[in-house]
Amino acid sequence: xxxxxxxxxxxxxxxxxxxxxxxxxxxxxxxxxxxxxxxxxxxxxxxxxxxxxxxxxxxxxxxxxxxxxxxxxxxxxxxxxxxxxxxxxxxxxxxxxxxxxxxxxxxxxxxxxxxxxxxxxxxxxxxxxxxxxxxxxxxxxxxxxxxxxxxxxxxxxxxxxxxxxxxxxxxxxxxxxxxxxxxxxxxxxxxxxxxxxxxxxxxxxxxxxxxxxxxxxxxxxxxxxxxxxxxxxxxxxxxxxxxxxxxxxxxxxxxxxxxxxxx
Length: 263
Known about the structure:
Blueprint: H1 3-12, E1 19-23, H2 27-30, H3 39-43, E2 52-56, H4 57-63, E3 72-75, E4 77-78, E5 91-92, H5 96-101, E6 106-111, H6 118-133, E7 139-143, H7 154-166, E8 171-175, H8 180-185, E9 191-194, H9 202-214, E10 219-221, H10 224-227, H11 232-245, H12 249-260
Parallel strand pairs: 1-2, 1-10, 2-3, 3-6, 6-7, 7-8, 8-9, 9-10
Antiparallel strand pairs: 4-5
């Protein structure tokens, strides 16, 4: 791994080997998402607690302070929406020149293994890796499932993660699931947990994040379960403590309640 790639990876994965990414890219397929209508306002109190921001180029330009200093993971796939026929029918949306112009630390795109567009999404990933490796820019593959949530089991996610790694992704983002260690065990690159649909309680979020970290994840890429929470700063701090300070569920829950109550 050359210096540029090493440098960018070190901005994403912190010296303790862990990371906490804050995604606000949801609008690229579902429009003005609840509590993300004005993304600049949503992220302002949360940025101190994340290690990188996962965002599209449009929102990056319109709503993110260029003097903010957080590493940017640029969402570079899209082309389908929640009202379309198939969310898996994506293409690459951003050129390598644009990626460099925006000074992205890394890029991210979705792959849809097992869908009608499996080949297209995997060859898109390969093409993105081919372009980005030339410039030392890491690619994060996102193992997406579209609307088919029942696919989120260890066997399927392990398949997706291994394929993404085989095609050259430097990091893989995937859903937490039962037996998460089986997903991580078969993936030779760092695995970051996705949040998925919003949980009913903040305690549920802390529990699944703690389990994933104990079973081999290097970190978290969590959006809706943070900024759709009634107490986004409190849950952000609690999750950061699990990821970077090795807090137990009990310790993180106590921290959440302490911050929530303004103590």
